[in-house]
Specification:
This protein is about 40% helix and about 15% strand. It is of the alpha/beta class and about 425 residues long. The chain has 2 domains: about 190 residues, NAD(P)-binding Rossmann-like Domain (Rossmann fold), CATH 3.40.50.720; about 190 residues, 3-Layer(aba) Sandwich (Rossmann fold). It has an 8-stranded mixed β-sheet, with helices on both faces. It has a 5-stranded parallel β-sheet with strand order 11-10-9-12-13, with helices on both faces. α1 crosses α3 and α10 packs across α11. The chain starts with 7 loop residues before the first strand and ends in a 22-residue tail after the last strand. The C terminus is likely disordered.
């Protein structure tokens, strides 16, 4: 479908989803305004640079800014299409916090005009798109809103992203999109917009169904990861190599067990299941339990790592990785950060952080004395290794460089690591 280069698009929120989305739309030839509350982000983008790490994003942003197709602003401007991509965290009681979405809606409302399209992309609990519509109705009584006894003067829809960090630019184009409209007409209007940029299938449904689809996708993964994490604890207690068990079990034609880790992180999988639990707490039993299992795995890793560190008193400890998954710079809701920070608060300066995607020590480690070092320095100076992230750099370390280390490997990246017992301790230490 040809791109309408005359349309002006505003993307509200220039984070891990908003900025790549804005850049891709701008590459198609549209005039795009990226809106963010951070003056630093706005200044960075307008200078043709990026504030996040993502494959090929820096070159893309530089190009579309240089051509004048993308600029950033602190203020929302009149546009034809508005895409809202702001955070939707959970509160301390694990209830969804949609305040950023509603605030974005309030900033968009004054500039809305008949014929505009508003698309919410933020992962949201069921009913958020309707709540956004209701804010528009309250603030703009001069405009008819869809689903309130009329087709509406504006189209309002929900379309969540389905992307993997490190592949965002590719997957924004190639992945299928689920587009939910307040009304079928709204869905079709949003469909026409996405078909200009998306090669994957675009399937329309209701806004409430699309909101649930996103939550279900991430909850499904959370449940499956919970099985692997629970299995890893059981295998560990039975002195069985969980990685071998999974590898062999997966040879069954209908079995596909995921790999365990120190928990579950990221802005989606570790958060979104709570949206479903909050929506129907009496019936979301498996989903709640999976979340508790995955959070509990982090506690388990801290305990096992502490046992190993105590067994090798006086040895410096290298915590390998802080990102929530391999080969990215995203530390949001990272179980690796939670484990390493708790160890740092207990062991202080003995804890050394090895994270090739970090430029400075995260605030979680303030006051602990933990410092950021490179991998080679860790191999030279540290006697204990706690592997928390399976970065490619860590996988590349040959066994002869680490054979004398006491290792707790939560990712299974060093299957050939010799077991090492402390001089005063019998039994298995390295796992």
């Amino acid at each position: 479908m040809p791109v309408d280069t005359q349309q002006k698009v505003s993307v509200i929120g220039l984070g891990y989803i908003g900025l790549p989305t804005a850049a891709l739309i701008a590459r198609g030839g549209c005039q795009v305004v990226g809106v963010d509350v951070s003056a630093h982000v706005v200044e960075t983008v307008n200078s043709g640079r990026v504030h996040i790490e993502e494959v090929d994003l820096d070159g893309l942003v530089q190009g579309v800014v240089a051509r004048g197709n993308l600029r950033a602003s602190l203020a929302v401007e009149e546009s034809d299409v508005f895409i809202i991509a702001v955070p939707t965290p959970v509160a301390e009681d694990r209830a969804p916090d949609i305040s950023y979405v509603l605030k974005a809606a309030r900033t968009v409302a004054p500039v809305l005009k008949a014929g505009d399209t508003v698309i919410l992309e933020s992962t949201s609990p069921v009913g958020t798109t309707e709540a956004m519509r209701d804010i528009f109705a309250q603030l703009r009584p001069d405009l008819k809103m869809p689903g309130l006894g009329a087709q509406g003067d504006v189209a309002i829809a929900y379309c969540p992203e389905r992307v993997l960090p490190g592949r965002i630019l590719v997957e924004l184009i190639d992945n299928d999109r689920c587009i939910g409209g307040i009304t079928p007409r709204c869905a079709r209007k949003a469909l026409g917009f996405y078909r200009q940029f998306v090669r994957g299938a675009c399937i329309t449904t209701t806004a409430r169904a699309a909101e649930m689809v996103k939550l279900v996708e991430n909850s499904f993964r959370d449940v499956n990861i919970a099985f692997a994490n629970e299995l890893s604890v059981i295998a560990e207690n039975m002195d069985i190599d969980v990685w071998e068990v999974i590898r062999l079990a997966n040879r069954h034609p209908r079995v596909n067990i995921l790999n365990p880790g120190p928990g579950v992180g990221g802005h989606c999988i570790a958060v979104d299941p709570w949206f479903i639990v909050h929506g129907d707490p009496d019936n979301a039993r498996i989903i709640r339990t999976a979340r508790e299992v995955n959070d509990g795995k982090t506690d388990h890793v801290v305990a096992k790592a502490s046992d190993l560190i105590d067994a090798f008193a006086g040895k410096d400890v290298a915590c390998l990785g802080l990102a929530f998954k391999a080969n990215i710079d995203d530390f949001r809701e990272s179980p690796a950060v939670k484990v390493a920070a708790r160890l740092a608060r207990r062991y202080g300066r003995r804890i050394k952080l090895v994270e090739p995607y970090a430029r400075e020590v995260p605030m979680d480690f303030a006051g602990t004395g933990a410092e950021l070092i490179d991998l080679d320095t860790a191999l030279e100076q540290c006697g204990v290794f706690v592997i928390l992230v399976d970065h490619d750099m860590f996988k590349s370390v040959p066994v002869d460089e680490r054979a004398d280390k006491a290792v707790y490997d939560t990712r299974g990246i060093w299957p050939d690591q010799p077991r090492r017992a402390a001089a005063s301790t019998s039994g298995r230490i390295a796992v």
